[in-house]
Amino acid sequence: MANLVCLRFTSKSTIENTQLMKKIFTLILGLVSTFCSYAQQSPFDIDLWPAGLPNTNGIDSNQPFDDSKQNFKPSIRVFLPDAAKATGTAVVCLPGGGYSHLATAHEGYDWAEYFNQRGIALIVLKYRMPHSNPDVPISDAKEALRVVRENAAKWNINPKNVGIMGSSAGGHLATTVATHSDTATAPAFQILFYPVVTFDYKYTHKGSRHNLIGKEADQTLVNLYSNELQVTSATPPAILLLSDDDTAVPSPNSVNYYLALKRCNVKASMHIYPSGGHGWGYRANFRYHKEMLADLSAWIESNL
Question: Tell me, what's the pLDDT at 89?
């Protein structure tokens, strides 16, 4: 009888212990899930090349990366809209800086709220400076697009609706990716602010040209990265926004790109503001800031 009582007691204790362990395990899972969810709260950063860089600009081997020395770690910062608002569209943003530095604030991060309010994910790329090796920033930009598409389901993004946005030299990089990619890897659309497009000395931004391909580049290389010459019917649709009085990157960069797109029957829209110069980005002190946002919003509503 004593043995039977002992048996019953052991059995009851085992059941209670098992239930307790289940509760503890469930609690741990919940905490882990909460932590992981918190760790992925927007915005968050992702290393672009965790397995190692595919090429070099000559200074990116100097670890650790140091932004103050214009030695940027290739990475993306992901700004996701509320899941309830998500439209499935994403924009990979390439700030400008003449291929010598990056204007990550007003030409990058400051755009996050604007796009997120419209249910659009914004992914800002810190790309490496070329130091005369064009493959370096181009590979970073293409990898950023690939990483976004790879994570599309997790981030509520349609992998077929990932576009690219660039300002100034970032606009050159954006148009390079748009015109130097196959149909499977090209961005779905282009948003271009006062972009460098041509490397023709008549209109180009010399600093961008020299930093990307060098001062002694031959004409073949110049033509290859004069992206108005690379447009085809497969080039994605674009909107271009710029100022008429931009002396840093003259308006023919955008105008000639627009005309090349139209010759190939690619959908395109262009807005040229009377003044404002170069490099205004999201800055509210740009005289036509409200008009620019209205023009961009109208294009987004009609095309995305």
Answer: 98
